[in-house]
Design brief:
mainly beta; 8-stranded antiparallel beta sheet; 40 strands; globular
Amino acid sequence: MKMRNTLLLVLATLVSVALHAQTGTEFWVAPPDVTLRHNMPGDEPIFLNVTTGNTAATVTVSQPANPAFNGGSPIVLNVAANSAVRYNMTALKAQLETRPTNSVRNTGLLIQSTANITCYYESSNTNNPDILALKGANGLGLEFYIPLHKHAPFYNHNFSPNNADLAFASFDIVATENNTTVMIYSPVAVDGHAALTPFTITLNRGQTYSCANTVPATHFDPSTHPSGAVVLANKPVAVSIKDDSNHNPSGGCYDLMLDQIVPVNILGTDYVAVKGALNSNGDESLFLMAVQNNTQVYVDGNPTPVATLFAGQYYRHDMDYLSGGPVNSTYVSGSKPLYAIHVTGFGCEQGMAILPPLNCAGSTQLSFTRSTSEAFYLNLLVRNGSQNDFVVSPATATIPGSAFQPVPGTGGQWMAARIQYSTAQVPVNQAFIVSNTSDVFSLAIINGGATSGCRYGFFSEFAGEIQVNAGVDQDRCAGDLVNLTGSVSGGSTTGIWTTNGSGSFQPNATTLNATYEPSIGDLALGSVTLTL
């Protein structure tokens, strides 16, 4: 009997991440319902802002659940490389806003691009604006907590009469696939559902659901906000939060706050918030919400926790103490992953943004645009040693290393800056590209004024954990082909095979279920490691 040689195939996994801007080729959002009665008509104009990098893009905007959108034809934008388009969608307002609450709507927007873009949805009323910075693939997930606040001074304006077009806090869900089952659990009563009672809804691709308390007698009270609610889905959904016409305790201002959030698997444990320009008694706040029980919260590197939280609870860190001093930032960390929501602004006008974590996040290059000629700032964060390595194109604006200050509690590892730019340095509606030649960084824009409103949003990557599985080790006889069954999920869905031998992958090394053909040299080795 003739014996055949055997070859041992050891299958291994390796995760390697390239971090770019908060860019992508597909974005989903459920446009929020903003009150008409704040500086009427207070829910317009509405813009979709698209910025390209080094590659031109054809951008298609549609409503998959609404064939009648835009007269039956999707919006198509041809955007040149290194440029920006601010598309006015106000005429479509009746088709966009996800209203009323507690009903399945067809308002989900899908933005698809032939090349990577940065994209945000802007509710741009002069006195009630903010931006929804869309997170692309990293905004899609199966589990979310709702990091709205219950801070009593930030109550919603109660228009009189209070029976129509209310200003309220909500979260808005859009499904990306048909037959998506979504379970919602809220610690407070929401429209149509009692507190502490889970309920389910079924959504098809592009359908939306808005969840809130809009009871006229209580909608404006932050204690009735669905803070800490849980959203669980069996297929990927995107979720955004909205807090309309929020009062600020330092004056008579009330302003819209909104952003798209990320699922719990995208969260980190360490965050830095850079102080904005709210009044010194404006309750500039960092809200930190736990997604696991027994989460301890630490501030500025102090080893003693300031709070221990159950899942769905939050701790509010007041940043007013930073006003007027050289220290311009706060460092917070959790013993377990948590959400970090930063409220800042100008004077008593405020906006809201979810912060990207320090771990597994950051960008090597990103693009942004300025919406208005009002005051405009960049908030930046980078590791010490790279603050002098920023490059801005066009070069009318610069990011000098001298603008950065050490972040307390990080042992000098992180540096933060807040830099104001004129319209000559950063013109309105012009694309700017920021890169760093030595490290990743985070960047946010703040645009507005102390007597108008605030647009606040981050454009840095929220990087999800990547799960890679190369499969089990295999023994094969000489001459046999090896069938691979690799999988990549989470923060990426693509991968590449490599070998320490000299065989070949068919049809190519980027096919997850490729076939490996061993070489004569592989057989001589006796064992080969294939790495995904």
